[in-house]
Write a structure and sequence with these properties.
This protein is of the alpha+beta class and about 250 residues long. Helix content is about 55%, strand content about 15%. The protein has helices at about 5-25, 35-60, 65-85, 90-100, 115-130, 135-155, 175-180, 180-185, 220-230, and strands at about 165-170, 190-200, 205-215, 235-240.
Amino acid sequence: MLTPLFATQAQAVAESDGILDALFAPGAQLQAAGAKEIIFAILFSFVLNSLIALLYKVTYRGTKYSQDYVNTLIILGTVVTMVIMVVHGNKEMAFGMFAAFSIIRFRRTVSQARDIGFIFFAMAAGLAVGARQYELALVTVPLVCAVIYVLGAMTLFSSKRGSHVLRIRVGNDLNYDQAFAEPFKRFALTHELVSAETIQAGMMTELVYEITLHNPSELNLFTNALQLANGNNRVLITKANDQVAQDSD
């Protein structure tokens, strides 16, 4: 009863070993790269990853842009090309090198989820060039860059959330619905109260609104109107995509 099961497992293991041998056997791979091809591959990878880094810079939205991260994209993609060329056709060296690289950790905390996507994009470009798939890299990298650029330029899949987050402190005796009615009507296209929290031992209330301004250039006038309405208490306005600072009371 168990014999067919073991036979099937043994056959699967043998097939997987055959695939690995086919991939890494020197006879199945191209001959070792010469100096000219090595130089071409490194420069080609550098150009493609520079294009990816430039795309990241052009399409970036936020306040935490890092030149160090952009340089890392170029370095990472180019180094991956070098690694793949080193292990090309050598199964033992491939497993040993990837085991060594497994202990390396990417220590930077990414500020946006798309940063992870660009890391994999740069690695994929370096992998394709290192595997000598030059035509594949030449076609796919610019094509994917164009798609990403169009997505960023057309702001596809963006939600209709507010453009700014308003955090304002008021006294407990203030009727904020009436006090802020005129500034909101004058400067805000939409506004929505997200939360209300008592602070300073219950002596004040902190309100958080999600708002969309008629004209972002009138932000200073809007802030002044709010301060006038709430007795010059604290007013903080940030972009909706930015992390709002939390102050300890």
